[in-house]
Amino acid sequence: MSPDLVGPVTPKWRVRRSCLVGATFVAAVVAVAMAAPSHADDDYESDQSFSRGLDYAGVLFNFNLEKRQGQRYCRAVVDGSDTLDATYDLMRDGAYSFDVANGISSAAMVAYCTCSVMARQGLDADPILCRPYELAYLRENAN
C-alpha cells in the first residue's frame, strides 16, 4: 500500500503530548471532585435531612436561601433565643408566613441544631445527636 492511501502519519511526539494534556485534565478534574469541603457547614447528611424536611413541609422553593435561614434560626437558638421567638424573627426578617417560617425552623431543628433545641426545651440531649453545624458554631463562639 502506498502512503497516500493510508493517510498522513501523526508524529509520536504529538500523540504523546495529546495523551499528557488529557491525563493532566483528568487528574485536575478528579482532584477538584475529591477535595474536602471548605466550610464546616457543608455537611451532606444534614443538608439532605434539611431538604427532606422542607419538602415534607411543602416549603422547598430555594434551598440555598432556606439553608441560610435555617442556620440563622439555629444560631439564634444556640445563642439563647426561644424557638418560637426565632421562628417569629424568620417571619419578620424573611417576610415569610408562619407556615413557611415554621417549616424552615422545623427542618432546621432536625438537620442543624438538634442538641440546642432539646436543651432549650429542658430535655437531656445525647451528644451523639449534636449536628456538625451547631458544634462548629459553638466552637467558633466559645469565647
TrEMBL record:
Keywords: Signal. It comes from the Bacteria. Residues 1-35 form the signal peptide. This is DUF732 domain-containing protein. The lineage of its organism: Bacteria, Bacillati, Actinomycetota, Actinomycetes, Mycobacteriales.
